[in-house]
Design brief:
The complex is a heterodimer of chains A (313) and B (556).
Chain A: H1 2-29, H2 34-39, H3 45-55, H4 61-73, H5 87-122, H6 127-141, H7 144-158, H8 174-208, H9 211-218, H10 223-260, H11 266-276, H12 279-307
Helix pairs in contact in A: 1-12, 5-6, 5-8, 5-10, 5-12, 6-8, 7-8, 7-10, 8-10, 9-10, 10-11, 10-12, 11-12
Chain B: E1 4-17, E2 20-33, E3 37-41, H1 48-55, E4 63-72, E5 75-76, H2 82-88, E6 93-96, H3 100-103, H4 110-121, H5 126-139, H6 145-148, H7 158-170, E7 176-180, H8 188-205, E8 208-213, H9 216-222, E9 225-230, E10 233-238, H10 240-245, H11 250-258, H12 272-283, E11 297-305, E12 311-320, E13 325-329, H13 336-343, E14 351-356, E15 359-360, E16 378-381, H14 395-406, H15 413-425, H16 442-454, E17 460-464, H17 472-489, E18 492-497, H18 500-506, E19 509-514, E20 517-523, H19 524-529, H20 534-542
Parallel strand pairs in B: 3-8, 3-9, 6-7, 7-8, 13-18, 13-19, 16-17, 17-18
Antiparallel strand pairs in B: 1-2, 1-4, 4-5, 9-10, 11-12, 11-14, 14-15, 19-20
Helix pairs in contact in B: 4-5, 4-7, 5-7, 7-8, 8-20, 12-17, 14-15, 14-16, 15-16, 16-17
The chains are: A mainly alpha (313), B alpha/beta (556).
């Protein structure tokens, strides 16, 4: 098992290298000269040239890439062109809110979507099934910001049950923390819940037709035992897969959600960095998200082996 | 009547389909006494399994009992609900199924799966249930039961999986066990071992058993009473002897005639549609080969090793002449399918050579063989006609495809004529050509598979269990068709099968394989009458013969 995980980690190295190369190339692919941006509108061509040299932007591509990778491997993500703060420190400050939002959304999704999918598959064709799948289509079609503003309007402004905007760190108490995250998590989770519920239903329907489910019935097992002991675990591989893929959705959605609910997270940092063409920050964030995504995929592979003894490692 | 354990009274079961309600069972009446083993025999679609599922209340959601009663110990099973029903299922009445590997949960250790059944019906601790499960594994004669408790179904053979199913089924000492095709798909020898075990256990525990099967020979061997079903009705009920010596109903007569016995010949398997064409061919003399004619196929010291582990096939040599039929028999894992696939050039041999018509083809990589001009000379008919036809291709497309790929024909009148000619040779009615596989019956699909294989006029046809998925009456037709094609077109047949009755009838020569090596070979009739090795003898003895009727298993 341990050697399997190690081998999987080694296998992610080329992926990370390609991601790093891509992220670094952003600087060259993207329009606009960072040196000009930093220098500002009033700067003379000499000023721009001086800045370019001080940042090392005049050196050959591969040399720049090499020294960049070297620094990253030492934990140095560079310095923001705009704030002059280390990028790692800037990301560190914003990590908490985004991580909180993603974890709460993930848990909410699993707790809501999987049972919904199971019930829909169990009662396939019935009214309950149609209502759940109708909701799923609805969840797919609504953009995050629409749901976000709607939720904020109804539950925060009109009913005043929950705060409209903002973020409170977990250190200041569990409820204040959670209170601020409920609406964003629902808004962000909508698409995700719809997706996972649909896949859960499809996977369960497939499994419920298998011979071993009939065997379980022949043994006299109750509905609960059949659904949760025999069926759900067999349906788990596609469900876990889609939950993992969904993390990518969350990353994209978090950027929008944080803007709507004024959460000072990585999403906001990303938008600010893009607007300012703050390349070191953009690079740092994209690299971090890619790393998280690769890590999630690694975790999914490990979960597969726990769920299904036929998958060998 | 009161001593009847089960009494099914005028049972009707219907399924709702897109085309409305379809009646699968139309008025079945039968009784089972305590401790008795009843055979329920019929072909696919006869409603025998549906009757079983209705009795154990395991019908699909689409199926419904529309009339009739199923009285189990005087209680109408069809009216039970909720807990009353669950107390019955798996406890007083249990079931084992076809395809045991699929019937077990693939990701749950078998010990737990047995314990599940025990814990559902008995209020005992998990440890006690585990101990009982272990005892049951011993009862079904699984070796090293302690270790097997933690095994998963994919780590066990098909026969072992069926033993585990039996262990689950008997875990709560049911009064009635319904076995639905319990040995279909298992090897002949495994079949016998599993059925013997089932019969012994049933006898020892006084369990009544309904054996649902399409195999008359099997039912005759183990049951004292056999009910024959056709199109949802029971057409005849008698002892095996009466059934075979004096079948009364026309359907039973057909079924008995189509079931191969130790002495039957292909021409005996009466089927009206093929008979005339077949007997016409039989009359013609076989062209005798001039002495010294090089063989059509020569296989020299063929071996196949997969990535890790021992050789799947080792040192396999054989020759075949034009128009000859050779049977390749053995249990699963004996390497017969691997060998046939190497000869078809679907997989690459690790060692040895294959010479076809004087040309060495063993070293042409299998992935390039489709470009070889010899590809059309060697064709294959696959095991399951349901799985081996592309569901999006019509019968016409299936047959036309090789003609276009290998004979370079273009869509048009000439192609249509060739396809129709192939269909006719394979006995496929031309009006079926525009249909998709799901609109065809099993026998019709088998014909499409054969028509496709003979489309390019091959000289060697490799058949991998071509009749294993077919009913006996369809099997009879397909066998006659194959033998007629061989005689008409001088096609050599390499017939891979575990059904020795079929091999004996169809093949001039037989090769017996075990663990990847040849155990014995020779002229079929002689080989089966006087097997030289113990292994072949065991195989031959395991064939459920209809003659076995009088020699009922002693335990019963």
């Amino acid at each position: 098992m341990l050697s399997y995980i190690l081998r999987r980690i080694v296998a992610t190295l080329p992926v990370m290298a390609i991601v790093a190369l891509f992220v670094f190339s952003l600087l060259y692919i993207a329009p606009g000269d960072p040196a000009v941006v930093i220098a500002g509108d009033q700067a003379s061509p000499e000023d721009v040239e001086r800045i370019r040299q001080s940042l090392g932007l005049d050196r050959p591509f591969l040399v720049q890439f090499g020294s960049w990778v070297w620094r990253i491997l030492h934990g140095d993500l560079g310095t923001s062109i705009f704030t002059n703060l280390p990028v790692s420190a800037m990301i560190g400050q914003r990590l908490g809110p985004t991580l909180s939002l993603m974890v709460v959304t993930l848990l909410l999704t699993i707790v809501v979507a999987v049972p919904l999918g199971v019930v829909a598959a169990w009662k396939a064709g019935s009214l309950i099934d149609r209502v759940i799948m109708g909701f799923a289509v609805f969840g797919f079609s609504l953009p995050v910001f629409v749901v976000g503003y709607m939720l904020a309007y109804i539950f925060a402004l009109e009913l005043e049950w929950l705060p409209v905007q903002g973020y409170t760190p977990l250190a200041q108490g569990f409820w204040p923390w959670l209170e601020n995250l409920i609406l964003p998590a629902i808004a962000l989770g909508c698409v995700y819940i719809a997706l996972v519920a649909r896949i859960t239903r499809a996977a369960m329907l497939e499994v419920l037709q298998q011979d071993y489910i009939r065997t379980a019935k022949a043994k006299g097992l109750g509905q609960g035992g059949i659904l949760f002991i025999h069926a759900l675990k067999n349906a788990a591989v596609p469900i876990v897969t889609v939950i993992g893929i969904g993390i990518a959705l969350l990353i994209g959605g978090a950027v929008v959600t944080e803007s709507v609910f004024a959460i000072p997270g990585l999403g906001r940092l990303t938008i600010d960095a893009i607007l300012r063409r703050d390349y070191p920050v953009i690079q740092g964030i994209v690299l971090l998200f890619s790393f998280v995504y690769v890590l999630v995929n690694l975790m999914i592979d490990v979960v597969y082996t726990l769920v299904d003894p036929r998958i060998r490692y | 009547m009161s001593q009847d354990l089960l009494r099914i009274d005028d049972l009707h079961v219907a399924f709702s389909t897109r085309r409305g309600m379809v009646e699968a069972v139309r008025g079945v009446t039968l009784t089972v006494k305590a401790g008795e083993m009843l055979g329920l025999v019929g072909e696919s679609g006869s409603g025998k399994s549906v009757t079983g599922f209705a009795t154990t209340r395991l019908l699909d959601a689409a199926g419904r009992v529309t009339a009739g009663k199923i009285l189990f110990r005087g209680q109408d099973v069809t009216k039970l609900r909720g807990d009353d029903l669950r107390q019955l299922q798996g406890a007083a009445m249990s079931m084992i199924f076809q395809n045991p590997r699929a019937a077990l949960n693939p990701i749950r250790a078998i010990g737990l799966q047995i314990a599940d059944a025990i814990l559902t019906h008995k209020r005992i601790s998990k440890q006690a249930a585990r101990a009982e499960a272990l005892e049951l594994l011993r009862a079904v004669q699984i070796r090293d039961p302690e270790q097997r408790m933690n095994a998963y179904p994919h780590e066990l053979s098909g026969g072992m999986c069926q033993r585990v199913m039996i262990a689950i089924a008997i875990s709560c000492n049911p009064a009635l066990l319904i076995a639905d095709e319990p040995t279909t798909g298992l090897d002949v020898t495994t079949q016998k071992v599993v059925m013997d075990l089932l019969a012994d256990i049933a006898a020892a525990r006084g369990m009544a058993t309904i054996l649902i099967t399409h195999d008359l020979g099997l039912a005759a061997r183990y049951c004292r009473r056999i009910a024959v079903m056709e199109r949802g009705r029971i057409v005849e009920e008698a002892s095996p002897n009466t059934l075979f010596s004096a079948p009364r109903h026309a359907y039973t007569r057909r079924l008995v005639a189509a079931s191969p016995t130790a002495t039957s010949r292909i021409e005996d398997l009466v089927t009206e549609e093929e008979r005339e064409r077949y007997t016409a061919v039989l009359g013609k003399p076989r062209p005798t080969l001039a002495h010294g004619t090089p063989p059509l196929l020569e296989v020299r010291k063929l071996a196949k090793r997969f990535d890790q582990g021992s050789a799947a096939v080792a040192d396999f040599s054989m020759t075949m002449a034009s128009g000859e039929s050779v049977g390749l028999v053995g249990e699963s894992g004996s390497g017969k399918s691997t060998t046939s696939r190497m000869i078809c050039r679907l997989i690459d041999p690790s060692e040895g050579d294959i010479v076809f018509d004087g040309q060495s083809i063993g070293h042409v990589a299998s992935r390039d063989f489709h470009r070889s001009p010899l590809r059309k000379n060697i064709q294959m008919v696959f095991q399951d006609p349901n799985e081996s036809l592309n569901p999006r291709f019509t019968a016409f497309d299936c047959i036309a495809h090789p003609l276009m790929r290998l004979d370079g024909m273009r869509a048009g009148e000439a192609l249509r004529q060739r396809v129709e000619e192939c269909a006719q040779r394979a006995g496929l009615p031309l009006d079926l050509l525009p249909r998709f596989p799901h609109q065809l019956s099993g026998g019709q699909k088998a014909r499409v598979g054969i028509a496709r294989a003979i489309a390019c006029r091959p000289r060697l046809l490799v058949l991998d269990e071509p009749t294993a998925a077919l009913d006996v009456s369809v099997q009879a037709v397909v066998l006659q068709l194959l033998d007629r094609l061989r005689r008409e077109n001088d096609i050599a047949l390499l017939f891979v099968s575990h059904d020795l009755n079929v091999v004996r009838m169809l093949c001039d020569r037989t090769i017996v394989l075990r663990n990847g090596g040849i155990v014995e070979q020779g002229e079929s009739r002689a080989l089966f009458e006087n097997p030289k090795t113990d292994y072949t003898r065991k195989l031959v003895e395991a064939i459920p013969h209809i003659e076995a009727g009088p020699a009922l298993v002693a335990a019963l």
